[in-house]
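Intended use. Records like the one below are meant for learning the mapping from a protein sequence to its folded structure. Do not use them to infer anything beyond what is encoded.
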Amino acid sequence: CTFWVATRQFRTRDCTDCTFYLHSHTEPIIESSRGLVFAPYAAAYPGLTAQFQEAKFDATRNFWSAIYDFSGKAGRANWRIRPLDECEVLEVHFDGRPDLLPDSPAPPLTQELLTAPPPHSEEGSGHSVAAIP
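Structure written out for the chain above:
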């Protein structure tokens, strides 16, 4: 399954073979999961920028890649970062409403965005139990 998620806190448990395009205000936590794939939030639809503002989400402060894996083990990665050539952008248009154009506060997907370190956090910086790429 593929999910586009914008949230204050992201936690998963017992997930298998899922892809997440994620905007999270805290370090994502995964536990007892495998085959997870992560990329920064990449969606656009009419009113998305306003919804981010109403929720007080800062689109420039996204901890999508600061993943803490409670069940990580040396030699076995439970998650990976999605390569740019595999990334998708979800863009929603409403039939019969050409006046409502998709918008997004999120930066465009680039190789630099995929490889950038997570923003500084007072809570940590996405450490796993094992060194996982």
